[in-house]
Amino acid sequence: MLNLNDTIKVLLNRVSLRKYDEKHITQEELNLIIDCAIRAPTAGNNMLYSIIMIKDKSTKEKLAISCDNQPFIKDADIIMVFLADVKKLYDYFEICNVKEFCDKFGITYVKPNFQMLYLALNDALIAAQNAVIAAESLGIGSCYIGDIAERFEYHRQLLSLPENVFIATMLCFGYYPENYEKKLRPRFDKKYIVHNERYNIVKSAELKKMYEIYEKRFNENMTVKTENASNGAKENLKFSNYGQMLYTNKFASDFAIEMERSLKEMLKNWG
């Protein structure tokens, strides 16, 4: 049997942390986390991303509200917003007279498009995960905040985001509280995730087994209030299975609708 080295142990035991100790992350630790993020794989070694570091208390409080009212965000010691960023690349093209060069030799000069965004998003998210694992190895916890994709107009102004910059994700960092007990959340069995050679559709019976880890905890008495009803009014919905609750809470919710709208707004100057 393989021995579990420290890196593997960190990966297998990492959890999302939403409660933080008052101990501050030192500048030396922060520099190391950033150095590890920057060593992440990047398409063509172009590093099509930027990181906004947030320590200001008032900004953290604003983000706690704008990111779907999650109070723990303001308690994080440091917040990092990872951006898919091709602005720097195109600013460099401008000082290199790339457009004039293309015009001279009949080469098509394209504005930032979806393939560039795809690469930049990959760059940003891979760097973010490097930062997460580096921090975890130092005893510093983290939590991804997908809700930063909501309210794009507000976040664009708050963070002074120019065109050709796309919000990839946000991370909260802070030390684990003393005597914090990690509780690993269940994951799907690897047989449902790993496909050999080609994609294999998971059949209905197997899907039921796949979701058993969640369905076992489902309570048929669970209800949720939603404004996303045909009459536009808040209603108490009663679910007969986990799938109905999952869809309603995650994909038909008010925050999901806002995220869809916001992402469409972010995409307007791409492609």
How would you concisely characterize the structure shown here?
Helices cover 43% and strands 14% of the residues. By secondary structure, the chain is α+β, with helices and mostly antiparallel strands.
Question: What is the strand and helix layout of this fold?
Answer:
Elements lengths: L5 H8 L13 H12 L10 E6 L2 H10 L5 H4 L2 E8 L1 H9 L2 H8 L8 H24 L2 E6 L6 H7 L6 E11 L28 H7 L1 H4 L7 E4 L8 E4 L3 H10 L2 H13 L5
Antiparallel strand pairs: 1-2, 2-4, 3-4, 5-6
Helix pairs in contact: 2-7
Question: Can you tell me the CATH superfamily of the largest domain?
Answer: NADH Oxidase
Distance between the termini: 49 Å
**Helix run count:** 12
Q: Give the biggest beta sheet.
A: 4 strands, antiparallel
Spatial sequence of strands, sheet with the most strands: 1-2-4-3
> What structural category do the secondary elements indicate?
alpha+beta
Average pLDDT works out at 93
Unreliable segments of 5+ consecutive residues: none
SSE string, helices as H and strands as E = HHEHHEHHHEHEHHEEHH
